[in-house]
Amino acid sequence: MAADGQAGGTAGRVRVQPEAFDFAAEAAAFAAAQTGAGAVVTFTGIVRDDGGDLLEMQIEHYPGMTEAQIGRIAAEAAARWRLTGLSVIHRHGALGPGETIMMVATAARHRADAFAAAEFLMDYLKSRAPFWKKERRRSGAGWVAARAEDEAALSRW
Amino acid sequence: MAADGQAGGTAGRVRVQPEAFDFAAEAAAFAAAQTGAGAVVTFTGIVRDDGGDLLEMQIEHYPGMTEAQIGRIAAEAAARWRLTGLSVIHRHGALGPGETIMMVATAARHRADAFAAAEFLMDYLKSRAPFWKKERRRSGAGWVAARAEDEAALSRW
Amino acid sequence: MRLDVRYFAWVRERVGAPRETVETGAPTVALLIDELRARSEGHAAAFADTTALRVAVDQALAGFDAPLAGAREVAFFPPMTGG
Amino acid sequence: MRLDVRYFAWVRERVGAPRETVETGAPTVALLIDELRARSEGHAAAFADTTALRVAVDQALAGFDAPLAGAREVAFFPPMTGG
After folding, report:
1. Can you give the residue range of the structural domain that contains C59?
2. Residue C83 maps to a domain
3. Residue D83 domain flag
4. CATH of the domain at D46
5. Residue B106 bridge partners (DSSP)
6. Residue D15 in contact with residue D43, Cβ under 8 Å?
7. pLDDT per position as a tens digit, C31-81
């Protein structure tokens, strides 16, 4: 797999890549790699087709900073909750409706840690990782605007 | 698959079975079956080996009531959040360390609904679905006691 | 009234059986428990501390004050530990 | 001081280029923006409303008052939409 960026270590694995990935295979490999985990949470983001209006989503990113920034977010999650592991995979480039954009996986002894870490990672990836989405629709093209509720979600952490 | 109990409909699919299941394959099939979803959350519960002390976990359940009760919990989740689908699979019988006990999957347009529904389902499955766990350990056998924090978790909903 | 009474987990182990059929006129779960307690030492041990018990009437969770009129099945078990 | 300035998403589209090298003595991001604005109509459009912009200095998020001493790369972009 010709991943653009890959980082491991105690904060978990981070991959940023243009290639499609198999969510199920990644989730299975992640779960199999855990020791002492009783709970595994995964989140998968999918390109919504919005009833056929969406033709393509283009995801731009900031090579280098993307990996560094996700690494910081992952390290923060690893410091805040008792995890046995975490994983982030995020695509960039052109994606079609129904394609998997990204996934987060967390594992812990207890479910509360795994859920909290996964939600934290998602909230920060949404608003603090340098990705920008442009949609090409039948009705026109445009950049996806950040949602006020995504910014507000950060205040709970 | 010789599932003991199976139920579909708008509240989602519920399966209670003694057979092992492939978490990743189930998650992939669930995600593929969604229409209009932008977010998929899965939770998987795994038998912790606790450093080799645990030999076996036996899960007793109440056939008939188990399916009915999970169905009620699933219907409540479907009524509270905007979901495109949900799925619950829970095993009973004898499980070894590292085996998958159960999984929950939720899908929604937006991640907040998918996360909240998955956490709600887990909190209620923990304390309101008629399963009881008996552990056989090197150090002896005994029933797993309900945790006060699991009961307390229900009050947030 | 003929009731199917079921026991799970350590309640089942203390009673010594997973189910039994009882003939009773008890109008509520609590009064049924008083009758069951007298059946054997095992029953008495199982029902010694009812705060540790949960109840289902006809496969739905119920309280100790739940009426039994029309019920066919009552189950006793410890707090559940699913998930 | 020679700075590598990078633009992303609609900031890049308005400026008309993904990056440029600038020679500047601006001590802060805000003062660098004042210089960049004067470069072209595209730059002026990109920096018309700085409340719509986010900044990174050497690939870490920063504020408009961030000092530029020692910096090598500054990036401007809209609020991020990952996940």
Report:
1. 2-77
2. no
3. no
4. 3.10.20.30
5. B41, B86
6. yes
7. 999 999 999 999 999 999 999 999 999 999 999 999 999 999 999 999 999
* pTM of the shown model: 0.94
The DSSP result for D24-58, as a single string, is ---SBHHHHHHHHHTT-HHHHHHTS-GGG-EEEET
- The CATH T-level fold of domain A15-156 is Aldehyde Oxidoreductase; domain 3 (3.90.1170)
CA-based nearest distance B52→chain C, Å: 21
CB atoms within 10 A of CB B145: 11
What are the tokens at B119?
């956490």
Domain boundaries, chain A: 15-156
3-state helix, strand, coil split of chain A in percent (to 5) is: 35, 35, 30
Q: How far apart are CA B113 and CA A12, in angstroms?
A: 26
Residue to mutate among B16, B46, B61, B65, with most C CBs inside 10 A, is B65
Candidates B24, B122, B153; nearest CB to A28: B24
Q: Residue D18 has what DSSP assignment?
A: S
Q: Are strands C73-77 and C2-7 parallel, antiparallel or unpaired?
A: parallel
Strand order across the beta sheet in which B93-95 lies: B93-95, B54-61, B131-137, B140-143
Q: Which of D8, D56, D83 sits opposite A60 (nearest CB)?
A: D8
* ipTM topping 0.90: yes
H helices, E strands: number in chain C: 3, 5
* Tens-digit pLDDT profile for residues C9-27: 999 999 999 999 999 999 9
Q: What is the pLDDT of residue B11?
A: 58
Would residue A140 be called left, alpha or beta, if left means φ above 0 and alpha means ψ between -120 and 50 degrees?
left
Q: How far apart are CA A14 and CA B114, in angstroms?
A: 23
Residue of A nearest to D82 (CA): A126
The total number of structural domains that make up chain D? 1
